[in-house]
Amino acid sequence: MDCYQLVGDRRYCPSCGQVQRRRRTALAGLGLGSLLSLCVVVWWFQDHWLTVRLPTQTFVWPVAAVFPEPPKPSLAVDMNTVLSGAAASLDKEACDRRAMQAYIGAAVSLNKPRELIQRSARFEQDCGDWDLLAMSRAEAHAQLSEWNAAREQYDRWVALAKDSAVAWTARGRFREQRDDADGAIADYRRALLLEPTFTDVPQWLAALLLRTERPCGAVPVLEQLLLNQPSLADDPRVTNMLSRARSHSSCGVFQGTGTAQVQLMGRDQMLDVDARIAGRPFAAVLDTGASFVTLPRAAADALQLDLKHSREVHVKVVGSVRIAQRVILERISVGKATARKVPAIVVDEVFPDSDTILLGMSFLTRFKLSFDPQERTVTLKGTGSP
User: Fold this and answer.
1) Where are the beta strands (DSSP E) in the chain?
2) For the whole prediction, is pTM greater than 0.85?
3) Alpha-carbon distance 226 to 1, whole Å?
4) Does residue 211 sit in helix, strand or coil?
5) For residue 99, how many other CB atoms are within 10 A of its CB?
6) What is the structure's pLDDT at 353?
């Protein structure tokens, strides 16, 4: 008679069967632990950190209280277990990122900012930079009113996550709270370059521009917001800010003049137009999905734009993040529709093997747009036209 042990649906000799049972038990424990860690991190990000909801990109932003009110007793017990378990895992394997994520989530929920700072610093010293560490330490230092340390960690977060609109926005909010208006404005603008569909960030930016007596800068920000989110046209906060900015005596130059009509062309329904920049003709495409007028470097060279002192920024162009340089174009015209002092960016190329430029929202917000589906035309009428 054969002597064997049944493990699962397979037969093993007695010694092999014991090994298989231990292995299956260990794997099951590892899987459960991984699932618990993942659930903790997801729960933490959903309820206790920045939440970005697509497509409106609305932030849930507990800036003054990143660490929420003390949890219920039952939850506190669970999170204490998670915290101690994650700490034990990190003591065994110092660079276990999943364990560090679980530790951060539990420390946040239990309102333990000092422990979070200390453990994150140790992880960074042993294992190197990680943007999640900078983010969590920045908010923990801010909760403890350790402003210099918080500022340093926000700067590290941005440096480690240059293409993250959330990182730029977070530092902007911190800077605004610390009365650094210029720094906050710059960060908000960088965030919108990377993610132009945010809804809260344009309102924070516009309010700050108005508060610091820079109303003309608020006009294109709010106009683009309304084009992205037409439902906000009924929001008195947005419309009042836009009305206040437009009515300022110094903002006439930021209003478009004249009228032009553009015909939809071809199967792709592209809004191809003939544009003139500083009097020179260029092939262009009207693009409501682009934040700025976007020029390929060849067009910038033709216009003899001085880019030596222009700032480099990371922007999203035609679906990818690229390095660009910001400039101001004195005059852009499409037919008789004209805009002056138009913000633009320069990239190596917009479309492959093409000198076509994009006329984005920094130009289009100077006009009222109307579409005639029967005639298949789009009409641009200057906001400064009667």
Assistant:
1) 5-7, 10-12, 51-53, 58-60, 259-263, 272-277, 280-286, 293-296, 312-317, 320-334, 337-347, 357-359, 367-372, 377-382
2) no
3) 82
4) helix
5) 22
6) 73
Residue 266: predicted pLDDT: 52
CATH 2.40.70.10 placement within the chain: 259-382
In 207-289, where do the E strands start and end? Answer: 259-263, 272-277, 280-286
Q: Which CATH class is domain 259-382?
A: mainly beta
Choose among 264, 291, 272, 283: nearest CA to 360. Answer: 291
State the average pLDDT over residues 357-363.
86
pLDDT at 90 over 50: yes
> Class assignment of domain 1-161?
mainly alpha
CA–CA distance, 225 with 223 (Å, rounded to integer): 5
Q: How many CB atoms lie within 10 A of CB 377?
A: 14
Is residue 204 within 8 Å of 175, Cβ to Cβ? no
Amino acid letter, 244: R
Tens digits of residue pLDDT in 97-110 = 999 999 999 999 89
One-letter amino acid at 177 equals Q
Q: Which residues contact 232 (CB under 8 A, 6 or more apart)?
A: 199, 225, 226, 238
Give residue-wise pLDDT tens across range 209-234. Answer: 999 999 989 988 887 787 667 678 67
CATH 1.25.40.10 placement within the chain: 179-254
Per CATH, the number for 179-254 is 1.25.40.10
Residue 31 pairs in a beta bridge with: none
Comparison of pLDDT for 9 and 295, the residue scoring more: 295
Give me the DSSP letters along 138-166.
HHHHHHTT-HHHHHHHHHHHHHH-TT-HH
pLDDT in tens, 185-207: 999 999 998 988 899 999 999 99
In this structure, are residues 342 and 332 in contact, taking their beta carbons and an 8 Å threshold? yes
Distance CA 13, CA 149 (A): 61
